[in-house]
Structure formats: C-alpha cells, structure tokens
Amino acid sequence: MKPPIVWSVAGLDSGGGAGLSADQRAADATGVHLCPVAAALTAQNSVAVDAVFPVPPEQLAAQLATLAEDLPPVAVKTGLLGGVAQLRVVARWIDRLRERAPVALVVDPVLRASSGASFADEALLRAYREELLPRATVATPNRREAGRLVGDGPAPAQALALQALGVASVCITGGDEGRALALDWLASEHASGWLALPRRDARHNHGTGCCFATALAAALARGFVAADAAVIAKMLTTSGLHIDAKTPGTGPGPVRPVPDFITDATLLPALFDDAEPPARWPAPAGGAAVEGVYGITDRGEHAARLFGAGLRTVQLRIKRGDQEADWPTRLHAEIAAARGAGGLLIVNDHWREALAAGVDAVHLGQEDLLALSPAERRELAAARGGGLRLGISSHSLWELARAVAWAPDYVACGPVWPTLTKAMPWRPQGLANLAWWAAMAPAPVVGIGGVLAPAQLSLVAAAGASAGCVVRGLSDGSAWPVADWLAAWDSGRQMPASAAPDWPHPSLD
C-alpha cells in the first residue's frame, strides 16, 4: 500500500532544526510521504534567525502545480509562509485541490521565532484571519501565536475565537509554559480539553511546533479524526524530546521523534475536560484487576445465577424508563437480587444510585463522564477514594486519553466486532486495536462488543485483554452454558499472545 501523501508548505531552516527539516523527521516517524514545499528561505542557526527571504509567489505556485500533477496530497500543512502573497497562493491551491478530492489543511501559524524575531506584520495577520484560517481543518498555534491572532486570554477562549473565524478544530500548544505538565488545549468536533503529559526536562526542543503540526497532518492523512490526530501528534512530539541528546550547535538542538513512539505506553496522554488546567498527573487506581469472563445482564436475578454458575464479574445494565417514578426502588431491588451470590457486581451508568446501594464498582460511558457537574466530579472522586472501583468505556484514541485522566480500575475497548446491542458510529476495533489498547492503556483492558461465540472470547483473551464481555451469549436460551465460556477464556490464555500492531487503525469515519 502506498503511503499517504502530505504536503508541507513552510520555511527552510538553514540550521536543520525547524521548518521543513523538522517536518521531514515527523513525516518519517509517522510513515507518510512528505512533499517539502519551500515558501521561505531563512538564514538561521541553532541560536537565532538572522533573515527571512520569502520565495517569489510564482515559484511557490510552480512547486504546487508540479506536485498536483503527480503527488496530490491527502493533507497539507503550512508553517512559515513569509508574506501575504505566499499565503494567498496556498489558499488558492487548497481550493483547487478540494475541487478534486477532500484535502485536510493544518495551519501552524508561524508568526515569531523562538528567539523572539517576528515573522508577521498586521497585513499577514489579517490574511491569516480572513483567508487561510477559514479554510483550516485544524490550527495549531502556540499561546503567543494565538494571542497575536485573536488576543490574549485563557486558551479555551482563544480556541473559541479561532473557531469563530472558521477553523474547524484548534489545538493550542503550550508545552513551553513551564508547568509540571506539558499542556495543549484541544477544541474539536468530538472532544475538547487539556491534552497532558508529564513535562520532559529536555533542552533540545527546536522544531516542536513544526513536528506537532506535521504529525497531526500525517494522522489526518492516515484517516484519523482531528481529536485522535491531536493525541498522536502529542505522542510523537514528546517522543522527540530527548533529555540526553547532544546538540550540533551552541543553541537548542532539534526534536527527533522516533518511529516506535506509537507503541510507547509512556507517551499516551491524558485528556482532562475541565476548563482549568490540571496540576498533576493522575495516580493509578491500584485496585484488583477485573479478569476473565465479564457477564452483562439487565436483571438482578440473572446476575445472581451467573455468579452461581462460576462467573466472578457481572455488570448490571438496567435502562431507566422516561416515566418510571419508582426507579430508585426498582434499581435497589435488582442490585439486592444480584449481590446475594457474591462476586464483583458492577452497575452501569447509575453511579449515585449504586453508591447509595453500597455497590463496590460502577461503569461509566464517555457521555456519562461529560455530563458530570463539578460537584458530581468531586463526589465521584471522593467515593473512589473510599474504595469505589471505576470502569470506563473507550472507542477511540481521544476517549482512551480521557479515560487516562480518570485513572480507572479498567478500560473497556470496543466494539471488538460489530454489535447489535446498541447503535453506535464506531468502526469495529478488531483484535489488532484490542491488542494495541491492552499494550498501551494504563489500566487492565476489557474487550467488549460482538462476542457471540466462545471461540471469539478465546481470541479476546489471546489479544491481551484482562477480561472479555459477553451479553447475548449468556442470555437465557443461549447455545453455550457458562462453563463453555469459562473454558474458552482459559483456552485463550493458553494461546500464543497476539502482538500489538505497529499502528492502531481509525475507529471513526
């Protein structure tokens, strides 16, 4: 399969640290083919930028026209453009390309060098606001660049202002702000919040913004949506911050991302949805793992029978009727019926009622997390401090990152196979993504979705999952008794372990 093609229209750093040089290193690490298009030449080294020479517009246009004939892009990333005329050439070509096929545009508005030299006057800033940013799929300014474009203020407010200009998604990078965590504010269709990783004490950080934007464009080219692409960009950029690297000059050395960043579990960021920046990395839960066959039922009496047949973990998934006035009474009765036989009972969704009933574990979907008020977040955190165990669903990279922020006792990955249990927009994860989740998640992983026969459950176990969920296969009238499912899990544990793939595949169109 041919690698996706990404164009980078940016400046040539004569010192080899930032610009097109950094873009090439990021593209190599993500496995895409980069077409480096020079929009400006710079006279710079590792210490300073002495001069910028914009490429004549006709020369820039000629580069793009030639590439369009043979190497049309799936994504285009812009960096240092040099002037209004160069920006307008790019904007016209984005429109032409999009007449033929969808093309993602990542705009990294390089407005100032790290040494302080400005690359943009007011005319160029206006052209960004009125002509390029409205065409952008994602914009990746740092905090200072966002300030020049839309004014100073908190990063969430800056992102909203950029989106008001027409930008579809924004990731405002802030890794240079000196906090204990390196924080970037993401605002996209699917997710918003702080992407966080512990700060690396690395002096050699020349080209971080270029690497981040190019990695994000590469992830878009590989089929990931913007929120997932931002997670990947965060991972790649952090991987390139080598603490013990030697610099070729007297100033900061270049960021050098490594190709295996995507399988390094220490690089998986957390996504915090609070508007206030997080102060610390979440401590791991440290509870006992959920293991083996994980039954799911909507009846307490059935849960009790599953426990009696040998299951050690059962989730009680009860839907509340819109007009059900006696809901708490019914839920408490179902919980009481389920708890009589022992084992770990997990209640889905209804965490406050579960707490009132003295249940030891709850499972929440991502929509449940987002619906929590600040007071409810504090209440849930206090309950967890008191011993309540928490499982969280995840279907994508950004949902996995959000789960990281909650430090759950386990993370559910799904749907492994197509499922009719509930309607959802997600592509099946497959065993490959399940193996990647199991290798990367900071908590045990539970495979869920489409497990209809014991042989499938064996494959879930071989993929490295701590547990596998079974719904219809454990229902009354199933062709397989509980003993068959338990045996299938044990058999899967004896199979050769499935290797995690080099890259996960996108789970959302």
UniProtKB/TrEMBL annotation:
<dbReference type="Pfam" id="PF08543">
    <property type="entry name" value="Phos_pyr_kin"/>
</dbReference>
<feature type="domain" description="Pyridoxamine kinase/Phosphomethylpyrimidine kinase">
    <location>
        <begin position="13"/>
        <end position="255"/>
    </location>
</feature>
<dbReference type="InterPro" id="IPR029056">
    <property type="entry name" value="Ribokinase-like"/>
</dbReference>
<dbReference type="InterPro" id="IPR013785">
    <property type="entry name" value="Aldolase_TIM"/>
</dbReference>
<comment type="pathway">
    <text>Cofactor biosynthesis; thiamine diphosphate biosynthesis.</text>
</comment>
<dbReference type="InterPro" id="IPR013749">
    <property type="entry name" value="PM/HMP-P_kinase-1"/>
</dbReference>
<keyword id="KW-0511">Multifunctional enzyme</keyword>
<dbReference type="InterPro" id="IPR022998">
    <property type="entry name" value="ThiamineP_synth_TenI"/>
</dbReference>
<keyword id="KW-0808">Transferase</keyword>
<feature type="domain" description="Thiamine phosphate synthase/TenI">
    <location>
        <begin position="303"/>
        <end position="473"/>
    </location>
</feature>
<dbReference type="GO" id="GO:0016301">
    <property type="term" value="F:kinase activity"/>
</dbReference>
<dbReference type="InterPro" id="IPR004399">
    <property type="entry name" value="HMP/HMP-P_kinase_dom"/>
</dbReference>
<keyword id="KW-0418">Kinase</keyword>
<dbReference type="Pfam" id="PF02581">
    <property type="entry name" value="TMP-TENI"/>
</dbReference>
<dbReference type="InterPro" id="IPR036206">
    <property type="entry name" value="ThiamineP_synth_sf"/>
</dbReference>
<protein>
    <recommendedName>
        <fullName>hydroxymethylpyrimidine kinase</fullName>
        <ecNumber>2.7.1.49</ecNumber>
    </recommendedName>
</protein>
